[in-house]
Amino acid sequence: MKYWRQPLDKHRFQVPHGIIHVIEERCKGCGFCVEFCPKEVFVMSKRTNSKGYHPPEITDSSLCADCGLCALLCPDFAIYVESSDMPAKDNGQAE
Ligand code: SF4
Ligand code: SF4
């Protein structure tokens, strides 16, 4: 999800950071997490789990903004996110 401009008061806020955990054996490869993460943290991996599905792979965990959307959307409860004290890395996308 890309926006054409940044918020004018962006410098006033620190974007939270999340630590992502993927339980690969639960994944059924639906791709919701890849499609809907606003920070584009996931891609589908080429690996397969024991069920034969491709679990997501984390491209850059420092981008995670701890929004929790992936954990909320995953139909198999295969993702959870812990809050971290570190700020998320800015990848040029608006929140
Ligand atoms: S918590 Fe939000 S930003 Fe972090 S990986 Fe999940 S959907 Fe992406
Ligand atoms: S949303 Fe859950 S089940 Fe779907 S690909 Fe992501 S981790 Fe796997």
Label this structure with key terms.
single chain; 95 residues; alpha+beta; Alpha-Beta Plaits; two-stranded antiparallel ribbon; two-stranded antiparallel sheet; 2 helices; 4 strands; 11% helix; binds iron/sulfur cluster
Write the layout of secondary structure elements.
Layout (H helix, E strand, L loop, with lengths): L15 E7 L9 H5 L5 E3 L11 E3 L10 H5 L5 E9 L8
Antiparallel strand pairs: 1-4, 2-3
The chain binds iron/sulfur cluster (2 copies).
Structural description of this entry:
By secondary structure, the protein is α+β, with helices and mostly antiparallel strands. It has one domain: 2-Layer Sandwich (Alpha-Beta Plaits), CATH 3.30.70. 11% of the residues lie in helices and 23% in strands. The protein is built from two helices and four strands. It has a two-stranded antiparallel sheet. It has a two-stranded antiparallel ribbon with strand order 2-3. The longest helix has 5 residues. The N and C termini lie close together (9 Å). 20% of the residues are buried. The mean pLDDT is 91. The site of one iron/sulfur cluster has 16 residues, from α1. The site of one iron/sulfur cluster has 14 residues, from β1 and α2.
